[in-house]
Amino acid sequence: MTRTILFDSPFLLGFEHTRDLIERAAKAASESYPPYNVEQAENGGVRITLAVAGFSPDQLQVTVEGGQLVVAGRRESEGKPEADRAYLHRGIAARGFLRTFVLAEGMEVTAATLEHGLLHVDLARPEPERLVRRIPIRSLG
């Protein structure tokens, strides 16, 4: 991926982390399966809903690693009756997936629920502490 010229300015020092976040978000946005919605919750949190029809809870995994929410779905169809079926039309995807979302600092996953083929992942955004720090001024002369 090309580096963002804005963050290469000598006036923006220490923003490498922000540039990396933008690059990770752009990469995550290019993924298209499974489809998902992001909703604003009443309590200021966020709900991500992914369409995961055909996946059972034991085939899904929700983790948080390095400031990213990772939702993975694994299909183990070998040796199962479904692998022997002859489909006339197969419109329901049967492949595994890995979907990532970059989380803001302090975002916490509070719940993950599978309901009617939809995986709901609820996130909370705790109120940040307002910290004011006074910097002492030294006199050298």
Keywords:
single chain; 141 residues; Immunoglobulin-like; 2 domains; four-stranded antiparallel sheet; three-stranded antiparallel sheet; 1 helix
Protein model, in words:
There is one protein chain. The strands form two sheets. Strands 1-2-7-6 form a four-stranded antiparallel β-sheet, with no helix packed on it. The protein has a three-stranded antiparallel β-sheet with strand order 3-4-5. Helix content is 10%, strand content 31%. The model has no long low-confidence stretch (mean pLDDT 82). The protein folds into two domains: 1-30; 33-124, Immunoglobulin-like, CATH 2.60.40. It contains one helix and seven strands. The longest helix has 14 residues, at 16-29. The protein is mainly β and 141 residues long.
Per CATH, which architecture of the largest domain?
Sandwich
SSE order, as H and E?
Answer: HEEEEEEE
As residue ranges, the low-confidence spans are: none
Number of strands: 7
Roughly how many Å is the radius of gyration? 21 Å
Q: Main β-sheet, in a few words?
A: 4 strands, antiparallel
CATH class categorisation of the largest domain: Mainly Beta
CATH fold type of the largest domain: Immunoglobulin-like
The fraction of residues assigned to DSSP E strands is: 25-35%
